[in-house]
Amino acid sequence: MTFDERLDELRDALTLRAKSLIVTVLGDSLEAHGGALWLGNLIALVAPFGINERLVRTSVLRLSREGWLGARQIGRRSHYALTAAGRQRIRDSERRIYAGPRPAWDGRWHLVLTGLGEIGEGPRARLRRELRWLGFGALGPNIFAHPQADLEALRNMLEAVGLRDEVVVMQGRTQALVGIKPSQALLGRAFDLSELAEAYGGFIRRFAPFRAELAGAGIEPAAAFRLRILMSHEFRRVRLRDPALPAELVPEGWIGGRAWALARDLYEGLLEASDAHLRSLATTDQGPLPAPRASYYGRFGGVGPSRAARAGGAD
Fold first, then answer.
1. What is the pTM of this model?
2. CA distances from 229 to 7, 87, 90, 236, 285 (A)
3. What angle do CA 279, 282, 283 make, to 5 degrees?
4. Domain residue limits, the chain
């Protein structure tokens, strides 16, 4: 079986929805290069994933309505760029997707109390979804908790949903007079890690066989881009369900760490060739894609070219 046939088989085994895959392409590859391109470029980039032109057009229209993208018509061509809100969503997600092992836990819990304000049922349901997306677990109908929350992402989310003044955010700390077991019991009530462990296991089974390819003569740019996006899409799908708990509160030998290491190795091995493919297909109304921002190479704890070679990028 050829490498491309293996990629086809992998693609067919995954659940690929057009809008979600386009968000992966935008967040994983394009945002760091300025976040803008012609619609025709995007159609060409996602065609190998089985996403046809009609689905691309429908998806970017929905993303525009949801505030991710802004569109401009230039002659007969459509140009799309991430909005400020879309860029912020991607960067908030990026910190969760690519973050390495967390520092030692200091016993603090961040609590969000949602039952104190006059919040309608629709906004309340959205708030609960967003809190779960940020990794918070529910201790009760109106109490959400996380032991190491991303407070910047929490603040951005509350601003976006217009509920900053309708909830209370508190910080608490477990006391040394009790051991770790009560915190683990609290964790078991708020989070179910069994399904997450299964998802990480599936990711490893699908993508570990491709790790050996990186030690060979190299992968062609188009194939590298396909594998990188498939890997990033699947890892993103699992990682964004991961509450990113501190090591003290997850099972010993937690499978999420092995999945992260695999994703890091594949990402670094594919980065240069996949970027070359992206730059060969995508341009903006200003010309070639700009150099990536410097923090692009900080993903997974640091990947890609040497520090000296990264100096051209800016955040």
1. 0.85
2. 11, 19, 15, 10, 24
3. 100
4. 108-173
